[in-house]
Amino acid sequence: MAKTDNGIRIFQGLLILGNVVIGMCGIALTAECIFFVSDPYGLYPLLEATENDDIYAAAWIGIFVGFALLALSILGIVGVMKSNKTLLLVYIILMLITYAFEMASCITAATHRDFLTPNLFLKQMLERYMKAETDNNNDKWMTEGVTNTWNKLMLENQCCGVQGPLDWQEYTSAFRETYNDADYPWPHNCCVMDARGAPVNLDGCKLGVPGFYNSNGCYDAISGPLNRQAWGVAWFGFAILCWTFCVLLGTMFYWSRIEY
Amino acid sequence: HSALSTGTMHPLLLLLLATAHGLVTVNYTPELASSELGGLVTARTFVLQQPRCVFEDPKYSTAKIWLVVATAKGKEDFNNTVEPGSPEWAFQRFPANASAYLTLGAAMFHYPCPVPTGEITVLRVGSETACADDVAVPTCNGPLPGPGPYWVKFLALNGSEPVADTEWFGPIKLKTARQLPSGPEAGGGRSGAMIAITSILSILLALLLATLLAALCGSELCGSGSFKPDSASIRRYTTHHVYDQPAARL
């Protein structure tokens, strides 16, 4: 029996190694999702206003799934070492539940990332930026969020509008209803600012002289971080699930071979 | 210049009238400024090149150069004996009660020739919003009231006597903002990655559930649930064995 004992030992070793990797990936997933939920680029208000903020929901699920994976991997290691059928059955069932949640998170992140098109942000910007009259508290909250986020975006990234400052010229907007075209062909945050936060040359900015206004659009500054978030959650989760699949298959095989 | 209008008498008559007033039409057409400017034409403003090196004759050195903005009808009706600052040609009455108005009056020394390199020499028509409703400022350079089209020319006046003008330039059409077309935003195309993730993960989950059911049914929970003495079965070392021990061991 020495040969099969060795075989069993090796199999146990592989399962333990698989669970160790799952545990570490769980920690990594939790850390990654905490980073995304903390919204370092301040883009959450834009998504909240579009009511399409499910990539944040996917990141929240990822945090808890990461913890669950860590805890379950420890349970799995203990169960394999003791060859305890009950422990391993509990492990398998809980892992399947966690698997289902993580699958939901990945699919949500991938699906909602497909909704993030330039048109979506353009519509939000035109409808909400500097909107003067708000209907109710919720509307007011979203409008303030969108306005402050856009102001910050345009200042920090030296950009204007979604595709360019001509967005304000080509389409009707809430901004245009409050600010007349002659004084504000585009918002003043599109002007190149000096150190004190005032436009370097306001007339040059209104004329559209290159160098005195930001002529590029902000879409890259928005879609870059959001895409990284969505793909980070979706693909890393997918990789973890593929690995977990193999480990679970092995564990179920091991479980079915345990004899009382 | 229209080429041959109805009858050759018409242009001859105009020329006679012009020379009778002492008005010279300079060979210059106003033009829009460089297309590098982002705000060249907006919904209420447009930007023209300054008339530098246009009224070069020394007899214009004391004249004041005015910009005439007119509708298509105003262009036809405009006679050059105008008094800038008179209510008849006030900006505030344009275009309902006046088919043209004068604005941006500047003395000749504001347009020195030649143009120093690197300077942007433009005139932004429609930039003054403060005086747009103020009838006390009839020569206000206020925002244009609609998308146009508009015609412009420069007119040099000595007091209220016209001495020179340029050709008409136009039609200048301003921008009209439109509603954002509500295109396909929801479900903007399923990407291949999302389809791959969904399908592969679903298949894997299904396989896992199937394997779990097979494992459960293969053991004591359903069906015969027989123990199969296998050479690769795993023994728990701390508990008793299934198989009978030889009696000698006890």
Automatic annotation (TrEMBL), chain A:
The chain crosses the membrane at residues 12-37, 57-81, 88-110, 233-255. The keyword Membrane applies. The keyword Ion transport does not apply. Keywords: Membrane, Transmembrane, Transmembrane helix. InterPro entries: Tetraspanin/Peripherin, Tetraspanin_animals, Tetraspanin_EC2_sf. It is a multi-pass membrane protein. CDD domains: uroplakin_I_like_LEL. It is found in: Membrane. Belongs to the tetraspanin (TM4SF) family. Heterodimer with uroplakin-3A (UPK3A) or uroplakin-3B (UPK3B). This is Tetraspanin. It comes from Penelope pileata. The lineage of its organism: Eukaryota, Metazoa, Chordata, Craniata, Vertebrata.
From TrEMBL, chain B:
Coiled coil: none annotated. It comes from the Eukaryota. The keyword Protein biosynthesis does not apply. GO terms for cellular component: membrane. Keywords: Membrane, Signal, Transmembrane, Transmembrane helix. Residues 1-22 form the signal peptide. The keyword Transmembrane applies. InterPro entries: Uroplakin-3 (IPR024831). The chain crosses the membrane at residues 193-218. This is UPK3L protein. The gene is Upk3bl1.
